[in-house]
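Bit of a strange request maybe. I'm writing a small parser for structure token strings and I need a real example to test against, not something I typed by hand. Could someone generate the tokens for this chain?
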Amino acid sequence: MTEVEYGVATPTATIPRERNVLVLDLSKSMLAPLPDPSGPEKQKIEVARTAVYRILENAETSGGEFGLVTFTEAVRVAVPLGQIHKENLPYVESLISMLTPSGRSAIWDALAVGADLLRRGTSGVHGTLVLVTDGWDNASARFEVRTAAEPAGAGSRIDLVPYLLPEGSTLTLRVIGIGMGNQRDKGVDSERMNAFLGGLTTRAQSIGAPALFTYQEVDTGAQLFAQMVNAFLDVDYDDGRTFDQLHPEELARNAARAARALKEPQQHATVARLARPAAMALTEADMPYSEAATLEVDVVNAQSGVAPPYLRERYGPLGAVIETYLANDFGPALEQLHRSRSVLPPVTFSYWEARIYFARGEIVEAARSLLQAWNAADQIPVSHRARIVRRLALLQAKMQNDQETETLVRFLDETETKLARTAPKLKQMLSDLFAQLMELRGTYQLTRVTGGGVDDPADAARGHEAAVEAIFGLLQDTRLENAGGDALVEGALDFVEICLAEMR
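Reply from user aminoacidic:
Good idea to test on real output. This should exercise your parser:
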């Protein structure tokens, strides 16, 4: 299973899913069986139907809007976008059960119809589109995806990219491709799909549209089911309120606590791992994993004593481990984890082993497993590393009862997660701001050194103050960019401003 994520928003972002449209392939090839090492083969459409049932159950309880577009050579709106109510859920499920594959694939036309369901007048396309397909577009009559070498107007059909992403849009598009795509009718057209999402990324950047595009290839029934469920269902991670929900006094206390982690590197050594230079990490070409380790190491907690739904479907073998862990059955959880070792990325296995040992009070074993997780994380390319490193740092801070580092890591992690769909320019400004804040540790420490390589402490102090002023300037520019905008951004900026005041 491979995954490609595009750079307008971060890959491991949690996206609000109030308006969701599934675009489902019903071409004849969806009748083919899909191998599954964990059980008997099932038809692709059978697996997809089962996933839709689960998605509908969640939509009925969450109150979000759901729509379904199906396509062969013809495109149909099987379920109009709207809320799924308990009284009409059986009717919708009966409708899903009667979906029968036939014919060819009008993928581009179907995506356009899905976008039409999410279109809000002249204000753009807003919501989440999830495309599930096992083939190549061979039947679209109205829309096409052009390559960079094909000028506008080269064909008689409409260019899908600007139609899907007009100005003012906030779009998430998740593509789930069944098969490897190396032969026609044997899998998704991966080359064309990557070019399509690349074009969308360029378009989003040019118009400043907050957007997230991901492409996931699956080749087993379990992977297809998991990725379809994952595209629509949120799993809660670590309880905690967002910045705009904190009382000003709480925000100030948290920011002051985080600043201590930056000011005192000797007592907060874990923070140094967060600022590791990108040059020390591997490139994509050197990546030893067969798939990107991202959500597999997330921090999952039981909210109000109730485990999040669909853990097994979302995480596969790890889901059973997490369910048992959340039930405080740590011994069986450890046994399940060890049985699943062969199918888990090394960093995932070692992280959860450390977490279970820590929950059992076996500190030495937990520290040993966490060290193995850090070593495994060193083998991950920089594009996938940041979020994983923060998860490991958060666990290490808990194990060391280091509340200052824990607060800082939570701030950095929540910022990336909650603000993933911020406009690209604003998001880049925030990223630069946080990077400079982390670098401020060095100049702050120079002001505290007397001798030992510092010729003039006064020069060090002036240099540090200049660095602080530069960050204050960037902070004010970011506030102006966000004028009248996102309250979460304002909360994050307030947090940074208090940290800066603590480090003067």
